[in-house]
Amino acid sequence: xxxxxxxxxxxxxxxxxxxxxxxxxxxxxxxxxxxxxxxxxxxxxxxxxxxxxxxxxxx
Length: 59
What we know:
Largest sheet: 2 strands, antiparallel
Mean pLDDT: 87
Helix content: 25-40%
């Protein structure tokens, strides 16, 4: 299932809210982020081509 398919399957009231949220995030994310299903819900990720594996923010 894609993020769009997930949102289209929701009830009309939830679909409206998540569609607006999805559009807002898409408009404000820098180029290169990908939208995909994560933990069963739509989410945005940074591809390893932009942020290589093995780099962590943890101290």
